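Quick review question:
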């Protein structure tokens, strides 16, 4: 799991109040898997490389895309939470007459 630092090195923003979770990672892996499988099929049809060549290409690409994509997706979710001032467990105070 990719984790955030406790605070931003530049501005000191406290990241601990945000909860981006792992939902982005599961969704991202589905997208990356579909993309890599599609590209692997295209490469197989066009060039017909041996299995070991396909593995040598797509295993590192899949790992790199997953790590990079998870980092980007979690950062995007953090930015979204920060802009909307989202927090867990906040209830609106009841309207008093």
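Suggested answer, residue by residue:
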């Amino acid at each position: 799991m990719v984790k955030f630092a406790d605070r931003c090195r530049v501005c000191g923003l406290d990241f601990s109040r945000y909860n981006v979770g792992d939902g982005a990672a599961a969704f991202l892996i589905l997208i990356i898997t579909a993309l890599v499988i599609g590209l692997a099929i295209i490469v197989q049809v066009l060039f017909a490389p041996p299995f070991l060549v396909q593995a040598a290409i797509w295993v590192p690409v899949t790992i790199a895309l997953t790590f990079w994509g998870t980092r980007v997706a979690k950062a995007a979710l953090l930015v979204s939470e920060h802009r909307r001032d989202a927090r867990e467990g906040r209830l609106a105070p009841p309207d008093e007459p």
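Why it works: DSSP finds two helices and no strands in the chain. Helices lie at 23-47, 51-84.
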